[in-house]
Design goal:
Blueprint: H1 2-39, H2 47-64, H3 67-71, H4 75-100
GO molecular function: proton transmembrane transporter activity
InterPro entries: ATP_synth_F0_gsu_mt
Main location: mitochondrion
Amino acid sequence: MNNVTKALSSVTSTATKLSGPLVYNAKVAGQIAKQVYIREGMAPPTGAQIEAAKQATLKFVQSARSTNTWKNISKDQYLKAGLVAAEAYTFFLIGEIIGRRNFVGYDVKSADDHAGHH
């Protein structure tokens, strides 16, 4: 239990040391976001805007089901769509690398590494 107490004490002291800067930085970020919100004239969407977005989405889905819609798209538009898809996929891969903290695969411990712990 002594190790648990030491670890808990260490975590508590680290959290105490970080709480001041974290709270300060959160307040600064909140103030900056508030200033941007005001300066850019941002506002939550109105009910009419939400309804218009819903109708536009439904119209898009209905037109996407029609084969004539796809026949009228130019090669440039297909190329642009492919580039946007490649960009999105690249950001996904970068997120995966950051999440794994490794370029290839996950750092999974083998069963042999755990054999001495049982």
